[in-house]
Amino acid sequence: MYSSVLIAGQFVNLGVKENNPVTQMKLQKMVFFAHGLHLALNNGDPLIREKFLAWKFGPVVPTIYQLYKKWGNSPIIEKTSITVNSQPLANFSELSPSAIEAINNTWEITKDVDAITLSNWSHATNSPWDVTYKKVGENGVIDDNLIRNYFEQQIKSPIPAV
């Protein structure tokens, strides 16, 4: 399990590196999807320590929000400096193979998808955000078991023909 800031920083750095910067909104969704994918593919093992909250505009980790709120809805165009035990984290070097896989798969699936579409995905009927928001209300904690079960079903579901 990692800090949400560490995982978010990976997406920010990938965006800057590939000249495809993410916004705060897109970043929150990417971390949520990577966390869900990791839970589903790793027997419920969480990717991040912090819990997602059901905010009005989707699943949010407040720590990530606080760190990047200065960007508003503008693209985050500066690499994130991340340290582990007071040492700079060199890209993915400190992450497990399963964490790297979740981040890379999420990046490849979502990097060219706009934040509104990602928001629609996270707000889908019966999604973890939808269930929590309707049941608990705004700021309700989205349970990792709910996230895991949802992503397991999404992985098993065939992609509908267009």
From TrEMBL:
| Domain Antitoxin SocA-like Panacea positions | 27-129
Q: What is this protein called?
A: DUF4065 domain-containing protein
The beginning of the lineage is:
Bacteria, Pseudomonadati, Bacteroidota, Cytophagia, Cytophagales
**Pfam families, sorted:** SocA_Panacea (PF13274)
Q: Give the species this sequence originates from.
A: Dyadobacter chenhuakuii
Q: Which domain of life is it from?
A: Bacteria
